[in-house]
């Protein structure tokens, strides 16, 4: 309440005094100090200070204070990101980037913009696009002499390569960083580097080297208060020893990590990872009872990690199968089957996004090469023309004028023809692109329907096996399920590209109907794509009745009259 009253009084004062400000340098300095002090207050709450930041941007613009305007745009971008308004965040970041180009002395702020854009892309699993912005940010950090920030950005680059499954690149970069005094003098950066190198070696199945780096990191932070990180390192070392077949040491390290995590409920994520590894170890030691306990703990404590949950379901199903507990076997395999299908869907979406990112980068590199070559050619032509004019001006000025006029006239006509040709080509490319997108969407829908039919058939057989306690049929169902998973691993799943087809549509819906939930917005987007109730139900894995009821509630929330169609209302309301 104290801050709110302060804000209101200060803004009223600034608005009333604004015409008087900046009449001289002293007044300008005073107003800039006011703006900077207000920014410090706004920084304390970048979740709910959107309106305040917009006012500060306006004040900075009126005061001819570009640094304040850029600062406001960067903070507003963070505000939009924190409130899941990604399109709006990218919009203000682009606006800030354009403003910085007008004022080169503000180039340092580009580092924050590029870094924030990279964070957004990383959260969207678009790691290749994120790398592009991290590299740009790193270049500016080095240019500005901000060595520590440059190293932090470099670490983010390593994390992207790890997420992309490129451990060799991580190790190549790490060889350069391991000798850098900036990293070696900063304990947090050094610890992060050791952890990345251990993870890279683990991904390459070089478990001995992974243990060495993780052990070095453990030695580095053992006396710190980073309980979660210490337990994570011990758990990782235990998993590496398990892969090497040294189960006794693996169990010792895993239990040591478990002891650290006891009575620490805020570290449930680390506890879940530890339970999963202990389950693997006890399973390898042929101790099914202990393995069951830890796998079930991993499921209970790690509901946000579907990969580990799927692994636990599968292992529990296999353990109960060995114990000939068929009801529990069927139960866990059915849960595994349901979850694994959604995991493959997400995995293929990620692969599609990564491939898309690679293509985008290649296209941008190709365009940059063309621009560089064009620039070289133009530079060469300009130099040649200058020399030519100097040599001929002495005796042939009149003739040169005529020739040059003819040349420029032809060049102008040729350029006009080229522009018209380019426009025609662009139009054809756009038409082909739209047609291919439609064909791709239809093909994907057919693929999804076929896959759902196969899964329904498997589920029907599984239900029959459970009902009649038919072990042979249950084994046959398991084989069919494995074949189904193998057959779906290379299929392309429907890509979540609604934002690319209708840029800014999510922000538009949020602005027009702020009371809508995330599920309501999802139904709006599906109707915007002209999907039927049946198609929407298949995509959302719910019944058609559930979709009908959701649309009915949506219509009630939006206060749409009974005689007006919800689809028609959305088409008219949302561009």
TrEMBL record:
Keyword Transmembrane: yes
Keyword annotations from UniProtKB, A to Z: Membrane, Transmembrane, Transmembrane helix
Family matches, as Pfam families: TPR_8
InterPro entries in alphabetical order: Sig_transdc_resp-reg_C-effctor, TPR-like_helical_dom_sf, TPR_rpt
Gene3D superfamilies reported for this sequence: Tetratricopeptide repeat domain
GO MF, one annotated term: DNA binding
Record field: transmembrane: 387-409
Entry's Gene Ontology BP terms: regulation of DNA-templated transcription
Presence of keyword Transmembrane: yes
The organism's place on the tree of life at top rank: Bacteria
The protein, known as: Tetratricopeptide repeat protein
């Amino acid at each position: 309440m104290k801050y709110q009253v302060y804000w209101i009084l200060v803004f009223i004062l600034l608005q009333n005094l604004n015409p008087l400000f900046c009449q001289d340098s002293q007044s300008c300095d005073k107003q800039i100090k006011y703006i900077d002090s207000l920014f410090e207050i706004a920084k304390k709450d970048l979740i709910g200070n959107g309106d305040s930041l917009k006012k500060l941007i306006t004040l900075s613009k009126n005061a001819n204070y570009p640094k304040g305007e850029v600062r406001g745009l960067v903070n507003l971008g963070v505000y939009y990101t924190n409130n899941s308004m990604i399109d709006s965040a990218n919009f203000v970041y682009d606006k800030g980037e354009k403003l910085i180009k007008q004022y080169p002395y503000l180039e340092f702020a580009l580092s924050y913009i590029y870094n924030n854009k990279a964070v957004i892309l990383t959260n969207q699993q678009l790691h290749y696009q994120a790398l592009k912005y991290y590299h740009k940010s790193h270049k500016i950090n080095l240019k500005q002499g901000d060595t520590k920030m440059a190293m932090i950005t470099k670490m983010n680059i390593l994390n992207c390569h790890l997420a992309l499954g490129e451990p060799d690149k991580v190790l190549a970069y790490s060889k350069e960083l391991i000798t850098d005094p900036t990293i070696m003098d900063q304990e947090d950066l050094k610890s992060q580097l050791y952890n990345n190198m251990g993870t890279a070696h683990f991904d390459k199945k070089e478990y001995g080297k992974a243990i060495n780096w993780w052990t070095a990191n453990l030695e580095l932070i053992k006396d710190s208060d980073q309980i979660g990180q210490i337990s994570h390192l011990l758990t990782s070392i235990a998993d590496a020893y398990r892969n090497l077949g040294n189960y006794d040491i693996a169990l010792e390290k895993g239990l040591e990590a478990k002891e650290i995590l006891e009575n620490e409920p805020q570290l449930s994520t680390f506890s879940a990872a530890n339970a999963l590894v202990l389950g693997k170890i006890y399973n390898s030691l042929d101790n099914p009872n202990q393995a069951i306990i830890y796998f079930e703990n991993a499921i209970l404590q790690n509901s946000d990690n579907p990969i580990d949950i799927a692994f636990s379901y599968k292992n529990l199903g296999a353990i109960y199968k060995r114990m000939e507990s068929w009801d529990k076997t069927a139960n866990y395999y059915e849960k595994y089957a349901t979850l694994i299908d959604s995991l493959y869907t997400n995995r293929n979406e990620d692969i599609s996004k990564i491939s898309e990112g690679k293509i985008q980068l290649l296209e941008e590199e190709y365009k940059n090469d063309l621009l560089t070559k064009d620039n070289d050619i133009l530079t060469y032509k300009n130099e040649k023309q200058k020399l030519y004019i100097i040599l001929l001006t002495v005796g042939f000025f009149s003739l040169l004028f005529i020739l040059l006029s003819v040349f420029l006239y032809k060049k102008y006509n040729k350029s006009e023809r080229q522009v018209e040709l380019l426009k025609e080509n662009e139009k054809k490319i756009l038409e082909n692109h739209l047609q291919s997108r439609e064909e791709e969407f239809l093909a994907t829908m057919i693929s999804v329907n076929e896959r759902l039919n196969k899964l329904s058939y498997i589920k029907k057989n599984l239900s029959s096996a459970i009902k009649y306690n038919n072990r042979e049929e249950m084994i046959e169902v398991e084989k069919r399920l494995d074949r189904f998973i193998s057959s779906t691993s290379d299929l392309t799943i429907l890509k979540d590209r609604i934002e690319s087809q209708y840029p800014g549509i999510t922000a538009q819906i949020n602005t027009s109907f702020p009371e809508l939930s995330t599920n309501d917005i999802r139904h709006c987007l599906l109707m915007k794509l002209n999907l039927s109730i049946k198609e929407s139900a298949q995509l959302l894995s719910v019944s058609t009745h559930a979709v009908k009821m959701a649309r009915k509630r949506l219509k009630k929330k939006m206060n749409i009259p009974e005689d007006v169609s919800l689809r028609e209302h959305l088409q008219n309301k949302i561009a």
